[in-house]
TrEMBL record:
It is an enzyme of class 2 (transferase). It comes from Euhalothece natronophila Z-M001. PANTHER family: NICOTINATE-NUCLEOTIDE PYROPHOSPHORYLASE [CARBOXYLATING]. Hexamer formed by 3 homodimers. GO terms for biological process: NAD+ biosynthetic process; quinolinate catabolic process. Its EC number is 2.4.2.19. One of its GO terms (cellular component) is cytoplasm. Pathway: Cofactor biosynthesis; NAD(+) biosynthesis; nicotinate D-ribonucleotide from quinolinate: step 1/1. This is Probable nicotinate-nucleotide pyrophosphorylase [carboxylating]. Residues 32-111 form the Quinolinate phosphoribosyl transferase N-terminal domain. Residues 113-280 form the Quinolinate phosphoribosyl transferase C-terminal domain. The lineage of its organism: Bacteria, Bacillati, Cyanobacteriota, Cyanophyceae, Oscillatoriophycideae. It catalyses: nicotinate beta-D-ribonucleotide + CO2 + diphosphate = quinolinate + 5-phospho-alpha-D-ribose 1-diphosphate + 2 H(+). Keywords: Glycosyltransferase, Pyridine nucleotide biosynthesis, Transferase.
């Protein structure tokens, strides 16, 4: 089960999004509910098949506007076909109409990410390789987008620069090499953060092995070289984890996983996901 982020983190985000949408007031809703604001029921439906992510967040968004009776008809993370009833909810007319767009936008966005992640994870479900996401996220939405990749079947890579130390190409260039970069890092790294090094060729892999790092990323390597590097790393230091990245898509992910890498990281489930079409209708 994927852990929901705490309310103390979520609520400021949701309040800001509602403020952005409502502005100085919901003109249409305010007019029709000024003298009569009855409790009404609404139904959410899928308009295409996909994995559902974000329903608990939608409930929290509506609850900031008024009391709501929230009755999900499916479990978070379920794969639903087209025209499936996701939930029924009852609230004041103003609460339902004012919160509709923000709530739907978020759930459609997160469900799109969860759906594409699911398709990637499904390709390697019978293999030990773990699919992981990246930091290529929408500014301000990382927490929720990474939640959606978990719902879809991926593991979260680091959330931020302070979660772990990843030495990338520009770090190596700036420090004068992998060995120098790692030496400088180790003198300042808090315990127990891990060190990962991005490599693009066999020479860099050898240097990373000699530096006894925790994870070696094989970045944009051809398939034969990935196989060779996995064998080399496991032979010289089986404690080092191996991650493949670059040129990962639905057509290539399985053959890359079959090389024996421990992790495959890709930004695609977030950066290439389309929103999943959903609707809310008063009944």
């Amino acid at each position: 089960m994927v852990m929901l982020p705490p309310n103390v983190v979520l609520e400021p985000l949701f309040r800001e999004w509602l403020r952005e949408d409502i502005g100085r007031g919901d003109r249409a809703t305010g007019a029709i509910t000024a003298n009569n604001n009855p409790v009404q029921e609404a139904v959410w439906m899928t308009k295409q098949a996909g994995v559902i992510a974000g329903l608990p967040f939608a409930e929290k968004i509506f609850s900031l506007l008024g009391k709501i009776d929230w009755q999900p008809q499916v479990t978070e993370g379920s794969f639903c076909e087209n025209q499936v009833k996701l939930l029924r909810c009852r609230a004041g007319t103003d609460t339902l109409l004012t919160g509709e767009r923000v709530a739907l936008n978020l759930v459609m966005h997160l469900s799109g990410i969860a759906t594409l992640t699911h398709h990637y994870a499904e390709k390697i479900a019978d293999l030990p390789t773990q699919l992981v996401d990246t930091r290529k996220t929408t500014p301000g939405l990382r927490l929720l987008e990474k939640y959606a990749t978990q719902v879809g079947g991926a593991m979260n890579h680091r959330f931020g620069l302070d979660d772990a130390a990843m030495i990338k190409e520009n770090h190596i260039q700036a420090a004068g090499g992998i060995t120098s970069a790692i030496a400088q890092l180790r003198s300042n790294l808090p315990y127990p953060l891990t060190i990962e090094v991005e490599t693009t060729n066999a020479t860099e892999v050898e240097e990373a092995i000699a530096s006894n790092v925790d994870i070696i990323m094989l970045d944009n390597m051809a398939l034969p070289l990935i196989r060779e590097m996995v064998d080399l790393i496991k032979k010289k230091n089986s404690a080092i984890k191996v991650e493949a990245s670059g040129n990962i898509n639905l057509n290539t992910i399985r053959e890359i996983a079959e090389t024996g890498v421990d992790y495959i990281s890709t930004s695609a489930p977030i950066t290439q996901a389309s929103w999943l079409d959903l609707s809310m209708t008063l009944v």
